[in-house]
Amino acid sequence: MRAFVVLSVVLASVSSVFAQTASAAAYATTEAPIAKAGVLANIGPSGSKSQGAKAGIVIASPSTSNPDYLYTWTRDSSLVFKALIDQYTSGIDTTLRGAIDNFFNAEKILQQVSNPSGTVSTGGLGEPKFNIDETAFTGAWGRPQRDGPALRATALITYANYLYSTGNTTFVSNTLWPVIKLDLDYAANNWNQTTFDLWEEVSSSSFFTTAVQHRSLREGATLATKLGVTSSASTYTSAASSLLCFLQSYWNPAGGYITANTGGGRSGKDANTVLTSIHTFDPAAGCDAVTFQPCSDKALSNLKVYVDSFRSIYGINSGIASNAAVATGRYPEDTYYNGNPWYLTTLAVAEQLYDALIVWNARGSLNVTSTSLAFFQQFSSSVTTGTYPSTSTTFTTLTSAVKTFADGFVAVVAKYTPSSGALSEQFDKSSGSQLSAADLTWSYAAALTAFEARNGTTFASWGAAGLTTSCSSSGSGSGGGSGSSGSVPVNFQETATTVYGENIFIVGSISPLGNWDPNSAIALSAANYPNWQVSISLPASTTFQYKYIRKYNGAVTWESDPNRSFTTPSSGSYNENDTWR
Ligand SMILES: *[C@@H]1O[C@H](CO)[C@@H](O)[C@H](O)[C@H]1NC(C)=O
Ligand SMILES: *[C@@H]1O[C@H](CO)[C@@H](O)[C@H](O)[C@H]1NC(C)=O
Ligand SMILES: *[C@@H]1O[C@H](CO)[C@@H](O)[C@H](O)[C@H]1NC(C)=O
Ligand SMILES: *[C@@H]1O[C@H](CO)[C@@H](O)[C@H](O)[C@H]1NC(C)=O
Ligand SMILES: *[C@@H]1O[C@H](CO)[C@@H](O)[C@H](O)[C@H]1NC(C)=O
Ligand SMILES: *[C@@H]1O[C@H](CO)[C@@H](O)[C@H](O)[C@H]1NC(C)=O
């Protein structure tokens, strides 16, 4: 009897493995063309579901009520076009050039549209969404969202690098670069300011935003160097170093996961972190934890904690083994539409795992550390920490289990996809039926990139290989820890009344304060108006001069003389309180 029981368990698990893999493979085959068509239908001017959208404008969804998503978000559009630009530049789809040029031209226009976040030079690049006729959206919203410019820069840099490699260097320097530079300057100047997160709910610092800003500035510095713009290259590299230090502070060692936002009052378990891992994947960076690569021990531990947080809260996940794939959502505390699984988050989990498999197979080894042990023990309770070469049975056991696990997430998505193949934003946590916006462009793009990772397709490196930090480890992320050795955070507060559309900046005699150049001045946040505030990482024990300036419709007004003077402390942090004069 015992033998029979064991055998039937093995057979059941083999058949479920087979079912998941077969289901994922079949789904990738049938859904890929539907997802591609779904993306293209939502892009103006000729997309079949995007009437009224100007050329190159990506609508989030054709849905006009419950919810109204007929807008263009910089984040969604840039992620969608990154996927299309990857397809074009890698030769998967050579027909996309016109659509990409339209996208570039549309974004170039949107950059210049004055909006409630400001003008192009006063913070307007942080505006999250626009009307599809390229006018400003002026209703109340969670703004600014500082991931948008970085994601747009990343998409356009991928295109620029390709055009440069084909010899079209004049177009890159004269046409693409000025647009890319605006976004990179915005990221470099504003990375240390609060932002709404990618779900547009929490205003604090956000892991996804920090990570995509870091990525954009690294590849931006490389492009700037190639184009001979060395001053920009050094500005971007310096900001990227600070960002990489700051990125480390989101790791929660006790919980074994990445805390998604510094504010928000939630657990911090959030698809934000899994999306970061796939959107900053660099196959050349191996399993580096410093950039949270998909196969890094920290990102794998995080994935398990994130996935497990949905096992007991969604009815459709009940009865599923604790080491098998489930439907996942944005974050477990979510109440939007009552809190449900999303296609793009469940697909992101699969994609992170496929990315990890790509690297393990390419490197011919897999490492189990104390940080990733719990992740791997899901698949083999006896596994211990160590390095497993591809010739070992442990490598084979673990990689095939991870592949099955990954396919399981695609199989979950397949199970809750209607026969038409249409993907909305969410599916009901109890019934599995579709909810919220129909034909969500990002859902389709998420399917495309997950399928590409599943079949082993990779795209250009962004320069993550070999990055290290030299941050002081004190503070471990609790506010006030110094950013990098030799620097201290100084919180500048300036009390100033302003008119609508006018903003306060700080500029001074050292490079983090723009070397007196008003174009490089650092914007202050008006979150506690009329107290404008910004925290800036400055070199320790350094004396410098500075002033606050006002910018209004491009005009700059300086504070009256004399210049203000300040000496940073040797360590710790400092609050400097000033009043406009
Ligand atoms: C460079 O690429 C742009 C964008 O597609 C195109 O308009 C232009 O004709 C190209 N120039 C050359 C010399 O190929
Ligand atoms: C600014 O950077 C410092 C040092 O990395 C960090 O402690 C602080 O939380 C950051 N603030 C924001 C709003 O990003
Ligand atoms: C595993 O660790 C070894 C030794 O640190 C390293 O050389 C190798 O690149 C690692 N493999 C992967 C896939 O990270
Ligand atoms: C990989 O998958 C993508 C998306 O389904 C597809 O476009 C591409 O042709 C596939 N590549 C290979 C080599 O199978
Ligand atoms: C303030 O600093 C600038 C730049 O060094 C200098 O040109 C200016 O004369 C200074 N103002 C006063 C009143 O010293
Ligand atoms: C500046 O203001 C903050 C609170 O707004 C206060 O905690 C801090 O002590 C002040 N710093 C100085 C130097 O007065």
Class from secondary-structure proportions: alpha+beta
Biggest sheet character = 5 strands, antiparallel
Shape: globular
Question: Number of DSSP helices?
Answer: 13
**Helix fraction?**
40-55%
Content of β-strand: 5-15%
**How many individual β-strands?**
19
The appropriate CATH architecture of the largest domain is Alpha/alpha barrel
Identify low-pLDDT runs.
Answer: 1-12, 473-484
Oligomer description: single chain
Structure overview:
The structure is a single chain. This protein has 581 residues and is α+β, with helices and mostly antiparallel strands. It has 2 domains: 10-454, Alpha/alpha barrel (Glycosyltransferase), CATH 1.50.10; 487-579, Immunoglobulins (Immunoglobulin-like, Sandwich), CATH 2.60.40.10. Helix content is 40%, strand content 13%. The chain has helices at residues 2-41, 74-89, 97-111, 147-165, 169-190, 207-226, 230-248, 271-279, 297-308, 343-363, 373-377, 393-415, 441-454, and strands spanning 72-73, 129-130, 195-196, 203-204, 251-252, 257-258, 365-368, 386-389, 426-427, 434-435, 487-495, 503-508, 522-523, 525-528, 531-539, 543-552, 555-558, 564-567, 574-579. The strands form 7 sheets. Strands 12, 13, 16, 17 and 18 form a 5-stranded antiparallel sheet that branches. It has a 4-stranded mixed sheet with strand order 14-15-11-19, with no helix packed on it. A hairpin with a 6-residue loop joins strand 9 and strand 10. The longest helix is centred in the first third of the chain and has 40 residues, at 2-41. The structure holds 2-acetamido-2-deoxy-beta-D-glucopyranose (6 copies).
